[in-house]
Amino acid sequence: MKDQNTTARSKFLSLVLRHSPETIGLKLDEAGWARTDELLACLARSGRPTRLEELQRIVADNNKQRYSFSADGKRIRANQGHSIKVELGLEARRPPAVLYHGTATRFLDAIFHEGLNRQSRHHVHLSESQAVAAQVGSRHGKLAMLQVDAERMQGEGHVFYRSDNGVWLTDVVPARYLLKLAP
Ligand code: HQG
Q1: Which residue windows are coiled coil (predicted)?
Q2: Structural domains of the chain ordered from first start
């Protein structure tokens, strides 16, 4: 069981590595990496002293593997989900035949009108499993499950990426590739 403290620290890590590193005076490079020692120094200066071993545990135990260390451990970044501009350097990959996107029923009219958009994120996020998509969608309200014809999308020129933690990413999903599954 994770204690509340660990969860709060992990959420704060998301905030600084994905959205606003300046909150604690941290700088990320263009690929989203922070120096591990700088991160620890910034956390301490902002009243959140964290030992390296604690940071390593947060990264290792994160339920969605949201963060990665570089191979030498000197740098750390979020695997996806940024709102600030970063170039993760992901390579285009062939997606599975179908992917899933969970959303809220109140968004469906707009989604079937204009397609799935990336909103404040870099990409539209898609899942290989309906179970994961259901969790993602339920965060927004009453769940609606969408199936994405990823194979046809790719065949028609859409590019897909897979983040280091297994989330499928693409720029936009036009409505013609979407099928709403029965609740
Ligand atoms: C919806 C979490 C109206 C979209 C999860 C979604 C994921 C539209 C919401 C990751 C729309 C955006 C991403 C349109 C899309 N009209 N609504 N045209 N197009 N939407 O949170 O996919 O915990 O930015 O369906 O696990 O829910 O952060 O995206 O409901 O991987 O690691 O607009 O966030 O990961 O919401 O979640 P979000 P998401 P983390």
Answers
A1: none
A2: 4-78 (1.10.10.970), 98-180 (3.20.170.30)
